[in-house]
Write a structure and sequence with these properties.
- This protein has 246 residues and is of the alpha+beta class.
- It has an 8-stranded mixed sheet with strand order 3-2-1-8-4-5-6-7, sandwiched between helices.
Length: 246
């Protein structure tokens, strides 16, 4: 009995010792559960990879391949290290960007995680800033929709679910990055892998939509740059709906 009481007291003390964003998140039971189940694994992985000095993360999503890649670096590092892949367990829509509410499409483009939902209907969820400036220009004005998340469970009408088990882990990684000072976590959503052969096939088979083709050209620039320098692309949104990608 004393051992149980000690464990409870220790856990409560650890929660209140945390400060900032993580402390706020730890008020929620599902986040505490995520840390109980995945926190040690996350910490061990970060130490093993040398990513324990102001963590920053970057997500690359390959829609039609059903993969989310997690990359990370220390704040003052210049290149990212691959941490892990997560399987997208359900997918709606098809190749191509999201242009209006109710089209069931998963967006494609350059986004950031702009909110954390510790009490989601889908266990835990990480919200994307869809519609981004490009979507607002090229999409159905006034009918763009929103609330696109990476979340638990295995159901979707435009989101990216990875099961409750794995959203716990990914959520912990993102909380750690946010708590370390990363205000914006970049997420690039590609239609699929964009190596030369894949990209040529994409354009040949699906490039009939000019705005989609132009988006894929911009995404290809970001893809190629990251393949070479392992740094998230720096993206500026242009008034045309295109992107300046560096």
């Amino acid at each position: 009995m004393q051992g149980i009481l000690f464990a409870i007291v220790f856990f409560v003390v650890m929660i209140f010792q945390e400060t900032g964003f993580k402390a706020d998140q730890m008020r929620y039971p599902r986040v505490r559960t995520a840390y109980e189940e995945k926190g040690q694994d996350v910490e061990s992985t970060l130490v093993e990879l040398g990513l324990d000095d102001q963590l920053e993360v970057y997500l690359r999503v390959f829609k039609m391949n059903s993969v989310i890649e997690l990359w990370g670096k220390n704040k003052h590092d210049t290149t990212c290290i691959h941490i892990k892949d997560y399987k997208i367990c359900a997918l709606s829509g098809s190749i191509g960007p999201k242009r209006r509410q109710g089209d069931f499409q998963v967006p494609e483009g350059f986004y950031t995680i702009d909110r954390f939902n510790p009490a989601s209907n889908f266990y835990l969820s990480l919200g994307l800033d869809y519609p981004n400036p490009s979507d607002r220009i090229l999409g159905d004005q006034g009918h763009l929709g929103g609330d696109i998340f990476i979340h638990g469970a295995c159901v979707t009408i435009g989101c990216l679910p990875i099961t409750n088990t794995w959203i716990k882990e990914l959520y912990v990684y993102c909380v750690e990055a946010r708590n370390s000072g990363q205000d914006k976590i970049p997420v690039t959503i590609f239609p699929g892998y964009l190596e030369a052969e894949d990209y040529n096939a994409l354009i040949e088979n699906h490039g009939f939509d000019p705005s989609a083709k132009e988006l894929w050209e911009d995404l290809k620039k970001g893809y190629d740059l990251f393949q070479v320098n392992k740094r998230p692309p720096v993206v500026t949104f242009l008034n045309s709906g295109r992107h300046d990608v560096k």
